[in-house]
């Protein structure tokens, strides 16, 4: 009796656990069915059909068309993103630690953060031509800012209690930064990394569309220009998997290396 | 011997001047257990923070064994009410923090931390993260963290304020035992009169607005206190009554 009651108390009103699990599956299935059914009436160039897209996806894999562009894209996102994280954290820490650095850099940071960075693609092409380095530079520049700003915010919002403990036990300024402020900023940095991962993938696709003869972005443009809608959507699906992969990777990193984030937050509530 | 000489402290909040402490003088003897008791806002915690160097006084000085203290002191171990264990460090690493500041080699640090944890009965959870511990255990870690630096004085700021009654009484007995074993001077801030009577040699009463030292009481009860019912002891009852009377707590409740 009391167990049933507490379970009911925990649930929101009007909730149906079984239905709630089935509903999203049904919604996806309904959409796929409607899409497939639309194929009977619409020209396949417009939106193709799920089955055709699936077939095209299988073909992209079996004919090994997708692998080279895929690896190219993956390389760009990983290298560009990692560089963005390393430099973003380093600059964020320096700005958080040294007021002078912050004062000097903040106009640039704020200006560049407010700029829609796609506009620098032509400039990047002028510097580096149509090359992977140009794309790397662009992805690096686009991921740098969210990481930097989040690191800075994290260093600013270190709980006063932690700093007091560090002070009472006579940690030096340097030790306070490395042993207290930076670890305390990790939740902020990870949140920045989630934003940056999304931007890195957008940056990858956009720069490949503009500055590339390979990569997923180039495939998208090619299939689009030749009205191969099924293959186009198959590549879109592969691109979505990048986002899913990035989210899963970041979740894994947090759970494996920073389990305290969720555990200590849960205890405070 | 710690000499508190004419300490005063004022600060401003929202353009309002607050006189937290006015001309407090007191000597604390080596090895004694002394409590600061008084209502909220009487300056007892401020004085404790000044002794540690966490807060800089606006006037007066603190002299420890003939040397005037400046900045955060080497000799004091501070136990916070909000323990603030760093969640990314294990219990042992939290206890090591004061030793890292002293640049002690890792092996020695580890041994000292485990020794301090053993004193509070927690050496078995040394490698557990702090959030896995109960509130009472976390506060024990807070005590171990302060003990690890082998302080000459232990400054405790309402350390059991957030704990439930049972845990609090257990920890009072443990602190009392630790004190009689180690012989370290303890300065203990609390607003719990019974707690102060149970633990202390002397109780310093503070009054508020402005915060000032009002009276010092010798607690002439035998030691060790955990071996008899202190709370029911006629002398303790008398002392509690007179403290409550003196601080005017009862009047405030009636008004």
List key phrases describing it.
heterodimer, A: 269 residues, mainly alpha, MetI-like fold, 13 helices, 0% strand, B: 255 residues, alpha/beta, 6-stranded mixed beta sheet, 4-stranded antiparallel beta sheet, 9 helices, globular
Can you walk me through this structure?
The complex is a heterodimer of chains A (269) and B (255). Chain A is mainly α. Chain A is built from 13 helices and no strands. Chain A has helices spanning 2-10, 17-38, 44-47, 50-62, 67-97, 99-114, 121-128, 132-156, 160-168, 173-210, 215-225, 229-257, 260-268. Chain B is 36% helix and 26% strand. Chain B contains nine helices and ten strands. Chain B has helices at residues 44-52, 91-95, 97-101, 106-119, 135-147, 165-182, 193-199, 234-247, 249-254, and strands spanning 2-13, 16-28, 33-37, 59-64, 67-68, 76-79, 153-157, 185-190, 202-207, 212-218. In chain B, the strands form two sheets. In chain B, strands 6-7-8-3-9-10 form a six-stranded mixed sheet, sandwiched between helices. Chain B is globular and about 50 Å long. Chain B starts with a strand and ends with a helix. The A-B interface holds A 159, 161-162, 164-172, 175, 179-180, 183-184, 186, 258-261, 263-264, 267 and B 52, 54, 72, 74, 78, 80, 82, 84, 86-88, 97-98, 100-102, 129-132, 145, 149.
Topology:
The complex is a heterodimer of chains A (269) and B (255).
Chain A: H1 2-10, H2 17-38, H3 44-47, H4 50-62, H5 67-97, H6 99-114, H7 121-128, H8 132-156, H9 160-168, H10 173-210, H11 215-225, H12 229-257, H13 260-268
Chain B: E1 2-13, E2 16-28, E3 33-37, H1 44-52, E4 59-64, E5 67-68, E6 76-79, H2 91-95, H3 97-101, H4 106-119, H5 135-147, E7 153-157, H6 165-182, E8 185-190, H7 193-199, E9 202-207, E10 212-218, H8 234-247, H9 249-254
Parallel strand pairs in B: 3-8, 3-9, 6-7, 7-8
Antiparallel strand pairs in B: 1-2, 1-4, 4-5, 9-10
Helix pairs in contact in B: 4-5, 7-8
